[in-house]
Amino acid sequence: MRSGVRLLFVVVLLIIAQNVYSQTFSNGYYRLTTQWQGEGKSLDVVNDGTNNQLHLAKTENVSGQAWKITPIGDTGYFRLTTEWQGESKSLDVVNDGKNNKLQLAKTEDVSGQYWKITSLGDGYYRLTTQWQGEGKSLDVVNDGKNDQIQLAKTDDVSGQAWKIKLFK
Length: 168
Prior knowledge:
By secondary structure, the chain is mainly beta. Helices cover 12% and strands 38% of the residues. It has one domain (27-166): Trefoil (Acidic Fibroblast Growth Factor, subunit A) (Trefoil), CATH 2.80.10. The strands form five sheets. A four-stranded antiparallel beta sheet has the order 1-12-9-8, with no helix packed on it.
């Protein structure tokens, strides 16, 4: 009987682990919104000529809000690119000492472009990078404007709960 319980325990753990690490996204583009700001504001690229800054903007049918989520081998990490800028630019952490600013940067094999997407339940996810680890999450600055994006200390806040919904 003990070996049967152990076997059942191992099987349950394997099923749980598979669900945690086998997050998949179908081929297509996704819209990213937060629980805090709702589906009326989406992660977007600022159209300012440099086209590498990010913010939350009014949800519209624009290619800067269409995100492709591509697995990086079988590492459990993903690369995020936009339909507008293509696969040559990826969501990245600015390496400036503070390491909390985000940008679209030339796609490279760097840990600041490797994103872990962890289910929080109810269709929401936490996004962290391989470089900064699970201690810093993709977040919205709570400054009254509520449209600036940053990496912030991981916390149980709605600005770090992202809905990832197939867009096109």
